[in-house]
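Write out structure tokens for ABC transporter permease.
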Amino acid sequence: MAASAARPSAVARFFDSDLWYSFSRSPVAVLSAIVALLCIGGAVLAPWVAPQDPFDLATLNLSDAFKPPAWAEEGDAAFPLGSDDQGRDVFSAIMHGARVSLLVGVCAVLFSTLVGVSVGLLAGYLGGTADAVLMRIADIQLTFPSILVALLVDGVVRAALPRETHDQIALFVVIFAIGISNWPQFARTVRGSTLVERNKEYVLAARVIGLSRLRIMLTHVLPNVLGPVLVIATLNLGFAILAEATLSFLGVGVPPTQPSLGTLIRIGNDFLMSGEWWITIFPGVALVAMVLSVNLLGDWLRDALNPRLR
């Protein structure tokens, strides 16, 4: 009882681990984590902390349109980053737009991870014809740029469904389009790791005692191939956010009633040359900060989990 009581908690073990030591000694990783937490926190808490609900038409006033940032000569403290053509607070719109961008990015990465890990496990463990067929499908998809695959999926859904129906499920269509375009990276990585793991002694022992293939894959092989998957998922989160912003900028992403950062940039781009630069610049800066911080964290995680660099 005394020994179990003295055992350190999971939190204590984490702060005593090599991963935390590497993180605390990397100024870039710490700064990236702070920026990422600010972006995520602002997006998640937007309905409660944003100065204005930019999508509530009852609170908008066209007389407040095109107000410059608060520090400018004609600025208004009620609009710290200025207002757009509808009188919406740009700062509040960024917080709500980041909320949509993060939702699409996280869900798309989770979807592509689920599909890619499942395909990679099956291909690597079963081998033979299943491996050849699944990997050739992945190779064929890798020949097409991911953004073109996403555009193709979105175009097919738009052509197959009425406009009203598409608008209702547009968010799910974008998540599916981005997610289905990124699964081959996960599949190839998991397949390579599974080919190594399936011939190790613990897998052979599991076969000897009569465990099923599905149980061996899920309870024995899968936990040992998740390290690289975590790194790829972190790096792909930034790409998924950029892909969603690109689709929304092109007008084929989320509907105008749920604008993301890409939609805000597209709206502001129409007024950039007329002098209202803040409408597009600030959403662009927010997008760059979010994606850059996530990518830098992914780079650090890749190095921290690589034993050859320790």
